[in-house]
Design a protein that fits this description.
By secondary structure, the protein is mainly α. The protein contains seven helices and two strands, in the order αααββαααα.
Amino acid sequence: MVDDMTPELADYLVAIVYLVARRSSRCCIKLVEVCRALGVAKSTASLMIGKLASMGLVEKNREGIAVSKLGLEVTEAVTRRHEVLENMFLQLGVDHEKACDIARKLEVVLGSRDLEVIREKISSSLSKCNKLECRFDSAIRARKH
């Protein structure tokens, strides 16, 4: 995982990957699309995307915002971590939405070794949701609170 990653930065990265993945022809999205999806102001989104760009996770160009190879790798790691943590909370009896929201907060701060211990202790996937979409929905819910 990238140093200095926060749940909020992960929200933006996941949102960008999710929005780009929904496109069939374009590999870039516009800032306004991110703003609309997350319900944030342009200035806030611009600042966060600037941070992601300085971390090498996204690239900004004339066509919009594109995800770098490192950005895709980090997004995959975030969604894998999210899945493990979400499943742990589901097994503990937490409802899906709450499990997803808690996992969002922990996925970037929990160490890899601790995550492996959790992965070994829990059963395989209980939640059959699309993990990228689930994580994206969690990012949107976080903005509404």
